[in-house]
Structure of peroxidase:
Amino acid sequence: GCDGSVLLDGSASGPGEKEAPPNLTLRPEAFKIIENLRGLLEKSCGRVVSCSDITALTARDAVFL
């Protein structure tokens, strides 16, 4: 789907969306970029910005460039 669940890691109860067959084509570098951005924003804003927000802003800026 078109949501942020692909950013969730797996847990003891099962694999995450990253490991689902349709998502295996996603580049690990993209996940690293989003995680780095999340860390920077969390330092500045606390935990009020979600990974879905970061993904939306990143996609917007990438299209603009």
Observations:
- Residues 4-64 form one domain.
- The helical segments are 28-45, 51-64.
